[in-house]
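Dear support,

I submitted the protein below through the web form. The confirmation email said the job was done, but the results page showed an empty box. After a refresh the structure appeared. I'm attaching both so you can tell me whether what I see now is the final result or a partial one.
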Amino acid sequence: MEKILVIGPAGSGKTVFSRKLGKKLGLPVVHLDSLYWKSGWEPSLQEDWDEIIKTIINEPAWIIDGNFNRTLGPRLEKADTVFFFDFPRRINLYRAAKRRFIYRGKSRPDLNENCPEKLDLPFILGIWNFKKKKRGLLLEKIRESGDGKKIIIFKTPRMVERYLENI
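What the results page shows now:
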């Protein structure tokens, strides 16, 4: 495992898992949110974002945490391992709410300054509707991304803990 994607809904624990996995494997971790969102939750320009992704995936080793469907194809093409977080939405919603209170009025460590944690209706609906609107498409893209790729689907937080314990 040298080029790893970690994807799934908001609040599922992708970032924490990526950090822990990066420490255990000695691989650099890239949090896409910190690169995409500029100060004040301003999105990157598409041309700039495409160039950022191209630069990252051409590095010799990485763990990339985040979805960003528009650029998933090139990342999947280069990845040798994909971790997909497929928890029940109640877990993701609880974790997102918990994170909101932990970082109330502040930016998370995996975001830029002046991107305070928020929990608004579109964000909640994104988590609520993830399985119905995005899950199938993501899994299809993962499965179509090529033979020889290791795909690990976590259905519970305990599966994640066990995986990290056994590395």
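Response: this is the final, complete result; the empty box was a page-load delay. The chain has a mean pLDDT of 92.
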